[in-house]
Amino acid sequence: MKTLRDILYNVGIRAVHGNTDIPVNAPAIDSRSVGPGDAFIAVKGVHTDGHQYIDKAIAQGAAAIICETLPEILLDTVTYVQADNSATASGIMAGNFYDNPSHKLQLVGVTGTNGKTTIATILFRLFSQLGYHCGLLSTVQNQIGDTVIPSTHTTPDPISLNALLARMVEEGCLYAFMEVSSHAIHQQRIAGLKFAGGIFSNITHDHLDYHKTFDEYIRVKKSFFDSLPASAFVLTNLDDKRGMVMLQNTKARKATYSLRTLADFKGKILENNLTGLIMQVGDTEVHFRLIGEFNAYNLLAVYGAAVLLGQDKATVLRALSNTQGAEGRFEYIVSAHDQIIAIVDYAHTPDALKNVLATIKNLRKGHEQVITVVGCGGDRDTAKRPVMAAVATDSSDRVIFTSDNPRSEDPDAIIREMEAGVPVHQKKRVISITDRREAIKTAVTLAGKEDIILVAGKGHEKYQEIKGVKHPFDDKQVLEEVMRLLDK
Ligand SMILES: CC(=O)N[C@H]1[C@@H](OP(=O)(O)OP(=O)(O)OC[C@H]2O[C@@H](n3ccc(=O)[nH]c3=O)[C@H](O)[C@@H]2O)O[C@H](CO)[C@@H](O)[C@@H]1O[C@H](C)C(=O)N[C@@H](C)C(=O)N[C@H](CCC(=O)O)C(=O)O
Ligand SMILES: Nc1ncnc2c1ncn2[C@@H]1O[C@H](COP(=O)(O)OP(=O)(O)OP(=O)(O)O)[C@@H](O)[C@H]1O
Ligand SMILES: N[C@H](CCC[C@H](N)C(=O)O)C(=O)O
Ligand SMILES: [Mg+2]
After folding, report:
1. Which domain holds residue 89?
2. Which of 13, 38, 78, 93 is the most exposed place for a label (fewest CB within 10 A)?
3. What ipTM score was computed for the predicted complex, to two decimals?
4. Would 164 be classed as within a structural domain?
């Protein structure tokens, strides 16, 4: 069993009251999960402050308290540690408790507004196909080899994260691929992890509710690359305006990818249609199953990272050419009678929506209508709502505004904020239907032969979160049911 002293190794400490040579059962950041002998770390959050739950944690048996501000009354039976930063301490302590699993495998982190799940998932599939036992931490699911572990976050809290990495090490994984969200960087969920590489996909409008300004969002993303060690690689997208900014202060080996200019990993799209992409990568022409220019970027990022991890270029391209994308990302079905193409995609930012609709435009032979069903999540960036609405309306013939995950908000109020983004001359393209099933049904009703329907925003999600309750909902399943029902 580890002692408190063991797991405090490398933690910035201001003061200690009590004995650190005591056994610790587990570190915990949530008082509700504290058990006898645990070390409770009081973290200041967005909604509340973990310091308020110190008494509760002690009542539940906590043997040690790690906090930024010491309580006024200190008990003799408990060890108190005043840390510089409790959130950072929780990452480092979780690493120490689980024997720093990130040091025992090659951990690659992917950050950026869009493409993280796609890049991490394809890397996981590629390396698995190349014969390595691998781990994956992603929005859709976590995975250790063939074992799927449901995910609650894009990047888990530091304790779950290190526990998962430790399981990966125990089960013999050599590589782990993970998404690094900006929330996770900011909340120090990745503190203490050792990365073998970091990948930057792109940065566009999202999460301004949390980061407040775009500059701050950029700064937070960049801090991930600033923290990488010299032994790691950093791979950046040269075609993104902030691609080079991410490299400014990193000690890691720098590499670039691009579709437009000279780069370490340069691609050129030769064909882009519903059967996939044909891309020239270096000197090789390769067919990929993934669709759309944005996926050409994701594939280049995967290819570059695999090569930087020491894999053979030709072998990687051969394996990649057969790989499929992540669930709920540009997945399509074609209706039996009218050959309506219905696409389910996780576009939940203005840029993602713009890219997906540009890809759809490219697939059109000319006469087909594009009908988009889209909503915006509640308790998230409100500034993106009118922008997403404008993008959807501008690039579609008909648009149906509906609910995404309203969470604690009034779904109709979210839709009103979306409607405000539509220019007057395009208003007649738009209908608003709050019920997502009805919205999808209306899109299918409106669709004629060979028309294209885009159902955006929820991708792989199997639920709709309304007022704290997750109701089962699956865009793809609803589309299939409605198409059958309407005999399309
Ligand atoms: C806004 C946000 O990121 N919140 C995360 C944050 O919670 P918080 O700051 O609200 O925590 P809080 O409720 O104020 O509590 C503060 C501290 O007191 C503790 N506490 C609280 C209550 C109690 O009774 N006892 C107790 O000890 C809490 O465990 C916490 O340590 O820390 C929690 C523990 O790590 C996270 O679960 C929680 O994620 C919430 C649920 C969430 O929805 N986060 C989303 C926005 C998110 O993180 N998304 C990104 C992806 C975004 C993207 O990819 O586009 C992600 O990585 O998933
Ligand atoms: N490289 C890219 N550039 C721009 N848009 C992309 C890119 N890759 C994917 N997208 C769009 O963004 C959506 C989300 O993709 P993905 O799930 O891979 O991103 P993510 O960064 O993991 O998102 P999240 O922040 O929710 O975790 C896709 O469904 C697609 O519409
Ligand atoms: N990881 C993103 C996913 C958004 C998906 C969309 N369906 C929504 O609920 O807003 C977030 O937490 O902001
Ligand atoms: Mg993701």
Report:
1. 2-97
2. 13
3. 0.97
4. yes
